[in-house]
Amino acid sequence: MEGITEGVNNISFSSPESQKKNRIQVSNTKKSLFFYVNLSKRYMQQYNEVELCGLGMAISTVVSIAEILKNNGFAVEKKIRTLTVDMRDEPGARPIPKAKNLKLN
Fold first, then answer.
1. Ranges of Polar residues compositional bias (predicted)?
2. How many CB atoms lie within 10 A of CB 97?
3. pLDDT, tens digit, for every residue of 61-83?
4. pLDDT in tens, 29-53
5. Angle 33-47/2-9 helices, nearest 10 degrees?
6. Do residues 64 and 36 make contact, with C-beta atoms less than 8 angstroms apart?
7. Strand pairing of 23-26 and 50-55?
């Protein structure tokens, strides 16, 4: 639990204008599923809602986090939104559309 708290306390955002304070960018390679579940619980205590975001394959992780929170009574779905964003593997390459997003309250 102490490692999770350290990770949560050391989170920094690159630009306040470009990111909401209650948004969590989920990756399925960097942290465990339950790190994001616990982080979401803390954000919901602090901000009353949390926005979970993921790109591509991380969307299934976002859905798993949301289902765990819902099934344990910590959250209800407020909005589900899927967008596509164009990602490029390298400069000058063709853009590849990837899916994104979910919002809980």
1. 7-17
2. 11
3. 998 999 999 999 998 888 887 77
4. 889 999 999 999 999 999 988 989 8
5. 60
6. no
7. parallel
